[in-house]
Amino acid sequence: MQTQLLKVTGMTCDGCASNVTNALRAITGVSDVKVSLAAGEATVQFDERLTSPQQLKSAVRHAGYGVDGTPPVHSHHGKGGCRGDDANASTSAVPAAHDHQGKRGCCG
Ligand SMILES: [Cu+2]
């Protein structure tokens, strides 16, 4: 069992944090995931025989977030946003390329 600390960028609310958590938990071999929204970090425990840090990072990127220096692929916050929080989204400094709500159902 190994522990990997990932620097995740683009997380701006609890919904983002759970997106990242779910993406990592979905990987075979991952046994525990702790995401800190404030720190922009994900701590992942995984079985190195079943997965790899590369796979963990790729899962974060596919969820739409940046990891270890790669920029976030997209943000859902500019278009109606997380939790339907439009007021927050419109004042967000995060630029949005497109909306992923239809794909993964961010923020429940
Ligand atoms: Cu969010």
Can you list the ligands bound to this structure?
copper (II) ion
Structure summary, number of beta strands: 4
C-alpha geometry: globular
Q: Assign a percent range to the helix content.
A: 25-40%
Number of separate helices: 4
What is the multimeric organization of the chains shown? single chain
CATH hierarchy class name? Alpha Beta
First and last CA, distance = 31 Å
Q: What class do helices, strands and sheet pairing give?
A: alpha+beta
If classified by CATH, what would the architecture be?
2-Layer Sandwich
Describe this protein with a few key phrases.
binds copper (II) ion; alpha+beta; 4 helices; 4 strands; 108 residues; 4-stranded antiparallel sheet; Alpha-Beta Plaits
What does this structure look like?
With 108 residues, the protein is α+β, with helices and mostly antiparallel strands. It has a single domain (2-103), classed as Alpha-Beta Plaits. It contains 4 helices and 4 strands. The protein has helices at residues 14-25, 53-62, 86-91, 101-104, and strands at residues 2-9, 30-36, 41-46, 66-67. It has a 4-stranded antiparallel sheet. The longest helix is centred in the N-terminal third of the chain and has 12 residues, at 14-25. Residues 12-13, 15-16, 82, 106-107 line the site of copper (II) ion.
